[in-house]
Amino acid sequence: MPQTVLITGANRGIGLQTAKELAGRGFRVFVGARDERAGAAALASVGSNAEVLVVDVADSNSIAAAARTLAKTTDHLDVLINNAGIYPDHGVSILDVTRDRMVETFQTNTFGPIEVTQAFLPLLRESSAARVINVSSGYGQLDGLSSSVPSYCLSKLALNGVTIMLAQALQSDRIAVNSVCPGWVRTDMGGANADRSVEEGADTIVWLASEAPMNLTGKTSAIGSRFLGEDRGHRNDAS
To answer: Catalytic: which of 20, 87, 139, 156?
Structure first.
């Protein structure tokens, strides 16, 4: 039986590349996307092992509906990759960012992964070796915080805290939970001047989903590091 993986925000960028690579390894891939047409367009490059799952991680009703839909399709989920994220901090700083902007960013980047994990937990518990992977950022590390990227930095900093809490809470279920800093990647979000390819950005995520030891949990990767805790340098990123 193939392993199953759900990747939110998988219709483009790092999420799409991760979907391609895991499908190539024989995973049954559920491409999470807010828009069904965008998700369907991505399937052509992912392959026959992929299906679209419509889910907007900023919408509780959408998350609940997606969980019900997936439960009708599969009886277990081996890997959940909370990849969907937004980067709305353009031309603002911590001195003038609005409360509405902060709430919008947290709804997707922080509250989304919490609620998605909660909603799909019954299926994760049916796996013999389940993994949850949160896609974070160098901007979410204490030494990477930037006053000119306020809502994104704080949302990813909080996401790293969520990773630690989920790892603690799910330890008895033997579900590994880790977060990944993929680096500054050439995607729509990262821009054309980023120094890492989308393949490099997906590398640690794919490793955690497929090869990492199950006793590795509650950790955050160094940027560009396949093995958590191995420091290959640090820079801020918008992945």
So the answer is: 156
pTM: 0.91
Give me the amino acid identity at 8: T
For the cut 80, the answer to whether the pLDDT of residue 230 exceeds it is no
Domain count, the chain: 1
CATH code for position 198? 3.40.50.720
**How distant, in Å, are the alpha carbons of 139, 156, 161 from that of 143?**
8, 13, 15
List the domain range (segments joined by +) for residue 97. 4-210
Of 3, 8, 1, 99, nearest to 58 by C-alpha is 8
Phi and psi torsions of 58, nearest 5°: -95, 5
Query: What's the N-to-C CA distance of the chain in angstroms?
Result: 32
- Tokens representing 168 are 């603690």
Answer yes or no: is 116 within a domain: yes
**In the predicted structure, residue 224 carries a pLDDT above the cut 90:** no
Q: Give a yes or no: residue 215 inside a domain.
A: no
Partners of 33 in the β-ladder: 54
From 20, 87, 139, 152, active-site residue: 152
Q: Tokens 């033997």, residue?
A: 174
In a domain, 191, yes or no: yes
In the annotation, is 156 catalytic?
yes
Does the residue 235 lie in any domain? no
Instruction: Report CA-CA distances (Å) from 113 to 55, 119, 218.
Output: 12, 10, 15
DSSP-derived 3-state class of residue 214:
coil
Q: What letter would DSSP give residue 109?
A: I
Q: What is the pLDDT of residues 142-158, one digit of tens each?
A: 988 999 999 999 999 99
Q: What is residue 1's predicted lDDT score, i.e. its pLDDT? A: 79
